Amino acid sequence: xxxxxxxxxxxxxxxxxxxxxxxxxxxxxxxxxxxxxxxxxxxxxxxxxxxxxxxxxxxxxxxxxxxxxxxxxxxxxxxxxxxxxxxxxxxxxxxxxxxxxxxxxxxxxxxxxxxxxxxxxxxxxxxxxxxxxxxxxxxxxxxxxxxxxxxxxxxxxxxxxxxxxxxxxxxxxxxxxxxxxxxxxxxxxxxxxxxxxxxxxxxxxxxxxxxxxxxxxxxxxxxxxxxxxxxxxxxxxx
Length: 238
Prior knowledge:
- This protein is an alpha+beta fold.
- Helices cover 39% and strands 18% of the residues.
- A four-stranded antiparallel sheet has the order 4-3-6-7, covered by helices on one side. A three-stranded antiparallel sheet has the order 1-2-5, with no helix packed on it.
- The model has no long low-confidence stretch (mean pLDDT 88).
C-alpha cells in the first residue's frame, strides 16, 4: 500500500445554546451613540459601534477597552454611507482585521464576517460588536484536546443591540400612523414595523415603558397583548 501521509486539521467548530452574559453595560446616549462599560477583569481587545437606518450606515471603532474601562462611541459624529453593501464591506474589513489580530486564519476570519454581514452590517438597528478576552472564553467554555495541539486560538464575538432616540422616534411615529385613514401613510408605517423583524417586540416594550407619546405607548401595549401567548388553563400541563 501507499505510505501514510501526515495530515493537519486547522479548524474545530462547535456550537451550542447558553444563557451566559458577560459583565458589560451599554448606556445609550441621548444624542446618539453609546458608552460601553467593560466590567470584566480583563481588557476587551476590540469593539465597534454601528447604526443602520434610512440614511444608510455609519460606525466607529475602539481598538481596545481596558478592564473596568469605558469607551464612548459618538455615532452622531460619524458620516453616513448611503450604500449599505459598501458600508457592510467596509465594516467587514475592520472586523476581519480584528479577527486576524486575534489569531484567526484569513479564511476563518472572512467566513465569520460573511456569516454576520447581512444581519449585523446591513439590517436596521444600532449595535456594538466586540471581541471577548481569551480568559473569559476559557472560563465559560473549558476545552481540553488530546493530544495537545501545538497552539490553540479561541475567539468569541459578542453583540449588544441598543435603541437610539432617532429609532425610537421612527417606531413611535409608525405606531401612531399604522391606523391612518390614508392608505399610503398606513402602508409606510406598516413597512417600518415589519422592517424591525425579530426586534419588533423589544422595540414595542421599549416604547411601552419609555415612549414620549401616550398614544404610541397605548398602541405598543395593545400589540404586545395581541402577540402574547395564551395563558395555560389552571391545572393544565405542557
